[in-house]
Write a structure and sequence with these properties.
Length: about 400
């Protein structure tokens, strides 16, 4: 049986490059940047005032001048106003360009203004205070956002600030989510006492939408010929097939045979883990990849996060995420020789430790339990007893 680490390596050996595309920057949130965003001018582009107050030439204070005639008021965006006398100042607002004839800004709280005169009543005035100097953040041509990072609201802000109306991003794979089974009915339907509503597909879709993916959803009935035909069509139309259910040893689990019939190469079937032991993974020539997850909701959810999202990040060129580790908050026992993904609630201790509190639930079919947890704790298969205070890798999903 394939181990978790072996399964991960086999999956990451199947990375793809789907190319790039240009998008309006407002539509690029959550996509992966395929070009560097550079400063089109110095940042800030001028000596910028950071406090409302008055602007003076500091030499006046050195010469003993503490009261200044207000020559003009300058707002952000105004053309700079110059002083010509040592005892003159400019009333100036945050964000304004600092005139070349002055070099120090004194905030309103430190001056008294009366009858057109501004008198300084604070000690310790320093030359150059309350200024954000031109180019202090970045110089023209400097990289503001590097290739290979996910476009966040902060990156959108950078693009807008340098006038990048379009961004080159990595193309995403075309993904279809496939459910199967006659026991499943649509969400809007009332199931019979022996049926359940389709939920896995919408769970998977919701996870992918968080990564700016918009997958399609189809359902295959329990019919071997229809199963084969539908899978064949999807292999021609999509880059990734995410299947949920129909891959175990049941009499109506037609998926593995259908994949074999349409010549999808099996790279592994069954992983030494719980939940998700029947997980199947394969490739269709050099084209589509097939991730066939078990139908139990928790198993699908875990396999999606543990395997597919890691492949997706690597395929899109995102940096490998550093692992998160958490401290087991109480003793736990698991007997089978399988790597166990324990559902946990992560909490910070007063000592600053990330603690993992087990929320066990009732097995891989207990999808309601997922709402009370936010991570899986990866417990190694070589052991059965896990002690409070031990540290394990945590797979966060919320």
């Amino acid at each position: 049986m394939t181990t978790v680490d072996e399964a991960e390596k086999l999956i990451l050996a199947q990375l793809r490059d789907y190319g790039t595309e240009s998008l309006p920057f407002e539509q690029a949130l959550g996509r992966v940047l395929a070009e560097a965003i550079r400063a089109d001018r110095d940042l800030p582009p001028f000596n910028r005032v950071t406090m409302d107050g008055i602007a003076i030439n500091y030499q006046a204070i050195q010469n003993g001048i503490h009261t200044f005639k207000i020559k003009a008021t300058q707002a952000a965006g105004d053309e700079p106003v110059a002083i010509t006398e040592a005892d003159e100042c400019i009333e100036i607002m945050t964000g304004a360009v600092l005139p070349a004839s002055v070099n120090t800004v004194i905030r309103y709280e430190d001056v008294e203004i009366r009858a057109g005169l501004a008198s300084i009543h604070a000690e310790g005035i320093k030359q150059g205070q309350n200024l954000h100097l031109q180019g202090a953040d970045k110089k023209q041509g400097d990289i503001l956002a590097a290739v290979g990072q996910m476009i966040s609201p902060a990156v959108i802000s950078l693009a807008a600030s340098v006038g990048k109306t379009h961004l080159l991003v990595k193309k995403q794979p075309r993904v279809v989510i496939i459910s199967s089974g006659d026991e499943l009915v649509d969400v809007h339907q009332i199931p019979s006492p022996y049926q359940i509503r389709k939920s896995n597909s919408y769970t998977v879709k919701a996870v992918l939408q968080q990564l700016a993916l918009q997958p399609d959803i189809i359902h295959i009935p329990d019919d071997p010929e229809v199963t084969k035909q539908q899978i064949q069509q999807c292999l021609q139309s999509y880059d990734v097939l995410l299947l949920s259910g129909g891959i175990s040893m049941g009499k109506f689990d037609y998926i593995p045979q259908a994949l074999e019939d349409v010549q999808v190469e099996k790279l592994f079937h069954k992983v030494a883990q719980r939940p998700g032991k029947p997980f199947w993974f394969g490739r269709y020539g050099n084209g589509a990849l097939v991730f066939a997850f078990p139908g139990n909701p928790v198993a699908t959810f875990m396999c999606l996060h543990r395997y597919f999202l890691g492949w997706l990040r690597a395929t899109l060129g995102l940096a490998e995420q550093l692992p998160v580790y958490a401290v087991l908050a109480k003793d736990f026992h698991f007997q089978p020789a399988l790597q166990y993904f324990l559902q946990v609630k992560l909490q910070s201790s007063p000592q600053g430790q990330l603690m993992a509190l087990p929320i066990e639930g009732n097995g891989s079919g207990d999808f309601a339990n997922l709402a009370d947890t936010d991570a899986f704790l990866e417990l190694p298969l070589e052991r059965s007893d896990f002690k409070k205070g031990e540290v394990f890798k945590a797979l966060k999903f919320a």
